[in-house]
Design goal:
With 486 residues, the protein is of the alpha/beta class. Helix content is 39%, strand content 22%. Strand 19, helix 15 and strand 20 form a beta-alpha-beta unit.
């Protein structure tokens, strides 16, 4: 039986209150262990440890030393690859084949990529003419923002946590991380790696718990937190934004999405099917960038739908260690109930169920897990709730369209604006349509292809701010100007 404690000032500590909650395996609902829930005392200790570390040995490190230290963290995660893989798969139930190719290696790579990209990024400089003709020089200078609160989600626990922690530390900040209550394992294990690599105490801290009246609320409201970065649902983002307004703390919010995919008749059909399958069903549909609305030009609608149904039938549900399985459970029984409620709602709203639509029979050993069928619908009205609301499960609705103008309007008809995917061989149209998408990220003839140097974030109710490359540097540092009169 595992025990997940907080990691504060370089040590694992239990909650003073003794409060814990269960961590269950979504594959079969068996008990993995108990997670300590942080109260105000633990959160305050973590934030103060992070604040103190800002002026300690961490501050004294030169850029090259900090880069070397964070590269060492990346190397150590890879050296302990099997431990991180086991922890991630136990928490999420996702296939080992996916976690071993995406979650763990890319989670480790975030430290190396951001440390080398950001720590030595140049600043600006200007010469200014002055009335005495001697001039002045302006030099841009960056300093760490301070204590960063990192609120991480459960769908890609290690990858999305280090996507924030990597650049935060590369810029010289310290962090307090609250992982999702559903997925504590890899974040907790990372504390051990930090100690092994010689990261000073207080630089990386972890507190466990929930949102309201728990670790999340206590952390985001703490007056010594200088900035907050969050990935998760929009309603939680709104609460964090309200908390950050006290003290005018900076925020970066990557929230929900109801992402469209537009498939034009001149696309490579097989490429479009393969990409849409991935965007709708990988990680059991639990990807913020995933596709839930698919719009297909009418002339290829029927063959596209037929091919999608054929590919969905090939998905194999199974345990993470089953090498033949490529589809796992949802994150929890609670989330299973939510997704299933939308499956039922789709039928009530008049959908035709083309594939899936229910809870599969996984046998006596697994039926208590959080399993759900990959599902395709057609025939829903554009104002149906299933079309308007984020489900965050393995499902999509496929609808025909006739004109470019029509589909642009349909794709943008949502409160969200995270990502969109276009499938076409017409380069002029791809740029023309992409420019009109009200989103933060557009893929053309691909999906989930990420360059860490580029901007990442959402429009409308999908978020505020951008991270990635220079945008992470802007968020995780304070920029000042030094003016020198000659």
């Amino acid at each position: 039986m595992k025990e997940f404690k907080h990691f504060i000032n370089g040590q694992y500590v239990a909650s003073v209150s003794g409060k814990t909650f269960e961590n269950r395996n979504p594959v079969d609902n068996t008990l993995i262990g108990h997670i300590h829930e942080a109260g105000q005392e633990e959160v305050d200790a973590a934030v103060r440890a992070a604040k103190t570390a800002l002026s300690g040995p961490w501050k004294a490190l030169a850029n090259e030393q900090r880069i070397a230290l964070l590269n060492k963290v990346a190397e150590r995660i890879n050296e302990r690859f099997d431990e991180f893989l086991e922890a991630e798969c136990l928490d999420t139930g996702k296939p080992r084949s996916m976690a071993s190719h995406i979650d763990i290696p890319r989670g480790a790579a975030n430290f190396k990529a951001f440390s080398e990209t950001l720590a030595n990024h140049p600043t600006e400089g200007f010469f200014l003419d002055t009335p005495d003709n001697k001039g002045a020089i302006n030099i841009g200078h960056r300093t760490p923002k301070g204590v960063i609160a990192v609120i991480a989600p459960w769908n890609l626990p290690l990858l999305l946590m280090t996507w924030k922690v990597g650049p935060a530390l590369a810029c010289g900040n310290t962090v307090v991380v609250k992982p999702s209550e559903e997925t504590p394992a890899t974040t907790t294990l990372l504390g051990d790696v930090m100690n092994e690599c010689g990261v000073p105490p207080g630089v990386f801290n972890v507190v466990h718990g929930f949102g309201p009246n728990s670790a999340g609320e206590f952390l985001t409201k703490h007056p010594l937190v200088n900035a907050i970065t969050f990935t998760g649902e929009t309603r939680t983002g709104e609460s964090i934004m309200q908390a950050a307004s006290v003290g005018l703390r900076n925020i970066s919010l990557e929230c929900g999405g109801k992402n469209p995919s537009i498939v034009f008749a001149d696309c490579d059909l097989e490429q479009a099917v393969e990409g849409t399958m991935r965007s709708a069903f990988v990680n059991c549909g639990q990807v913020c960038l995933g596709t839930e609305r698919v719009y297909v030009e009418r002339s290829i609608y029927e063959p596209f739908l037929a091919r999608m149904k054929e590919e969905v039938a090939k998905l194999k549900l199974g345990r993470p260690e089953d090498d033949s399985a490529n589809f796992g459970p949802l994150i929890s029984k609670k989330h299973q109930a939510k997704v299933k409620s939308y499956y039922d709602l789709a039928i009530a709203e008049g959908a035709t169920v083309e594939a899936g639509g229910g809870v599969p029979d996984m046998g006596a050993e697994l039926n208590d897990g959080a399993w759900i069928e990959p599902t395709i619908w057609t025939g829903l009205a554009d104002d149906a709730r299933v079309i308007r609301e984020e489900i965050f499960g393995p499902c999509c609705h496929i609808r025909p369209f006739d004109t470019e103008e029509e589909v642009i309007a349909l794709a943008n008809d949502t409160h969200y604006g995270l990502a969109a995917t276009l499938w076409t061989q017409d380069s002029s149209r791809s740029i023309r349509v992409a420019e009109q998408m009200e989103v933060g990220l557009v893929w053309i003839n691909s999906w989930f292809l990420r360059d860490l140097r580029t901007a990442f974030g959402g429009a409308k109710q999908s978020g505020i701010g951008r991270e990635g490359g220079i945008h992470s540097l802007e968020f995780y540092t304070e920029s000042k100007n030094i003016c020198i009169k000659l």
